[in-house]
Design goal:
The chain is of the alpha+beta class. The protein has one domain: Orthogonal Bundle (Cytochrome p450). It contains 18 helices and 12 strands. Strands 1-2-8-5-3 form a 5-stranded mixed sheet. Strands 4-12-9 form a 3-stranded antiparallel sheet. The longest helix is centred in the middle third of the chain and has 32 residues. The termini are far apart.
Length: about 475
């Protein structure tokens, strides 16, 4: 008995330590906040705030109430909202065993489950490498002339002889035409016009509550996505036959490039479904983001004469060294340093991409809280872009912030994401933006007819499409 008592007394401290450690492990709790009503959660509140251009304030109110990490429910899934430089680094650098790239259910269903937004690990690397081989600067150099031709044709048809335009709809038409020409060689005509109509319907419901009823935006977008997919499949078949007959080369456009990517055993690197889903992704990325960026540059140039004068001076220096009808070159784009700084500052203040989602693949401890396996992780671009500790006087438009980009802390300026998942279309967007701004400022002057701010749906949309009065400039 004395021996048993001694053993028991000896084990008590260990039992207490074990109990305490269990209590510590099980006391890890999910972040503060509420998941709200099932399926809907806080989705409608966020969407309303985005359309009122108050989404950042909506999130800041959450931060004041719950702190830097909180839980909510968005687009049908439990979600943890995190923000700041450390949060951005965590999102963009965590390995594929910890978190995976995952969008909302609406984006997944509209874009497709085999798009780069949904893939991880080896599949992500395989598909990304295939896209990057076409979208890298060395490859895109040969398409500057084609983009130049599309911009000049667009201005000739849509701007010349006009006294007033709505900038955003025209920029969306321009970027869509560039995509059709460069990415899959679809020339102007009825087929391209049908693509545009379906495409515009498809992207309307990408951020929406995933309730598939006939009267919802989500339903309309799903049906438009199915039509786009069918059209791309037919076009893919034509390109495959052209390649087989040597009537096209793998370098001709993105579609032929992806079809021409073969493994050592002559099988295609990407499946047909992957090619279609990722062409839809590149279409969305190259269409909306660039159109929004160009539109907001036009808006700012109209409101800031000194910035406008500096951009005009740089572009006129390039224009005066060109012969009539001569297109811009890769070397010309390299000289547009000030114009691209203006674009970067525009991206800082009005990032086209509001934020994004990741999925926790296992229970994660973050900032002392538990992010349960399967939950969404929600990050927001503008939270660091407008942080006074990172960008002094963040509401002031100052392109010189980007004169020395090395001075900007990493994972703080993230309009194109960061780390291994940075947007592969970054260079494509840079080229079409610089070419468009070059011809806009050298051929036209403008003033805004009205500037009543903008909303998000989910990208920034100026009120009434940014109407502007325009008149021709004399070429140097």
């Amino acid at each position: 008995m004395n021996i048993l008592l001694a053993v028991f007394l000896f084990l008590i401290p260990f039992l207490l330590v074990l109990r305490r450690s269990r209590r510590i492990r099980t006391s890890k709790r999910t972040p503060p906040g509420s998941l709200g009503v099932p399926i809907i959660g806080q989705s409608l509140g966020l969407l309303r705030a985005m359309r009122a251009n108050s989404a950042e304030k909506w999130l800041e109110a959450r931060v004041r109430k719950y702190g830097p990490i909180s839980k909510l429910s968005l687009f049908g899934k439990p979600t943890v909202f995190i923000h700041g430089q450390a949060a951005n680094k965590f999102v963009f650098t965590s390995d594929d065993n910890t978190i995976a790239n995952q969008q909302t259910q609406s984006i997944k269903m509209i874009m497709g489950e085999r798009s780069l937004l949904e893939l991880s690990g080896h599949d992500h690397k395989r598909v990304r490498d295939a896209l990057v081989s076409f979208l890298k600067p060395e490859s895109l150099k040969r398409y500057v002339e084609k983009m130049d031709e599309e911009v000049r044709k667009h201005l000739e048809l849509q701007w010349e002889g006009k006294q007033q335009v709505k900038v955003l709809p025209l920029m969306k038409t321009l970027t869509f035409n560039i995509i059709c020409s460069v990415l899959f060689g679809l020339e102007r005509g009825k087929e391209r016009d049908q693509f545009l109509t379906c495409f515009q319907e498809m992207i309307e419901g990408m951020w929406s509550v995933p309730i598939n009823l006939p009267f919802t935006r989500y339903n309309r977008s799903l049906r438009a996505s199915a039509r786009i997919q069918s059209m791309l499949k037919d076009l893919l078949q034509k390109k495959r036959m052209e390649l087989e007959k040597n009537a096209a080369s793998p370098r001709q456009n993105l579609m032929t490039s992806l079809l021409g990517k073969l493994n050592e055993d002559d099988t295609q690197v990407m499946t047909e479904k992957e090619i279609i889903h990722n062409i839809k992704l590149v279409m969305v990325a190259g269409h909306d983001t660039s159109a929004v960026l160009i539109t907001f540059i036009v808006r700012h140039l109209a409101n800031d004469p000194s910035i406008y004068a500096s951009v005009l001076q740089e572009q006129e220096e390039i224009a005066k060294n060109k012969l009539p009808g001569q297109t811009l070159t890769w070397e010309d784009l390299a000289k547009m340093k000030n114009t691209w700084r203006v674009a970067m500052e525009t991206l800082r203040m009005v990032p086209p991409i509001f934020g994004g989602f990741r999925k926790a693949l296992k229970d994660i401890e973050y900032e002392g809280y538990l992010i349960p396996k399967g939950w969404q992780i929600f990050w927001v671009t503008a939270m660091t872009h407008m942080d006074t500790n990172i960008f002094p006087e963040p509401s002031k438009f100052d392109p010189m912030r980007f004169e020395n980009q090395a001075s900007i802390p990493p994972y703080c300026f993230i309009p194109f994401g960061g780390g291994p998942r940075i947007c592969p279309g970054y260079e494509f967007a840079r080229i079409e933006t610089l070419v468009a701004i070059h011809y806009l400022v050298t051929r036209f002057a403008w003033k805004l007819s009205a500037d009543n701010g903008f909303s998000r749906d989910p990208m920034p949309v100026p009120t009434d499409g940014l109407p502007a009065q325009i008149w021709p400039r004399k070429l140097p």
